[in-house]
């Protein structure tokens, strides 16, 4: 039997999901920063490993046409690893 352990996604996993969403939407990081009202330097730091604040994540998600919950769920799904029992 395979069990799935829940853990919160890392900052890198959340950043990877956001980078994927940026690629899918075809916008630049600068366009996303402008739409989300997040300074470009802050967005770059977050995409390179610093943790997003929830207000930043919510603004970025809205600018990407999704929700912070959906971004976190997607990152969480990629973070899960099956455990042998």
| CATH third-level topology of the domain at 28-79 | 434 Repressor (Amino-terminal Domain)
H/E element string? EHHHHHE
At the first level of CATH, the class of the domain at 28-79 is Mainly Alpha
Strand order of the largest sheet: 1-2
Major sheet size, sense and barrel closure = 2 strands, antiparallel
Structural class: mainly alpha
Strand content: 5-15%
Number of strands: 2
Number of helices: 5
Q: From the coordinates shown, what is the CATH architecture of the domain at 28-79?
A: Orthogonal Bundle
User: Mean pLDDT, nearest integer?
Assistant: 88
What would your notes on this structure say?
The protein has 85 residues and is mainly alpha-helical. It has a domain at 28-79: 434 Repressor (Amino-terminal Domain) (Orthogonal Bundle), CATH 1.10.260. Helix content is 62%, strand content 7%. The chain has helices at 11-25, 29-36, 40-47, 54-63, 68-79, and strands at 2-4, 82-84. The longest helix is centred in the N-terminal third of the chain and has 15 residues, at 11-25. The mean pLDDT is 88.
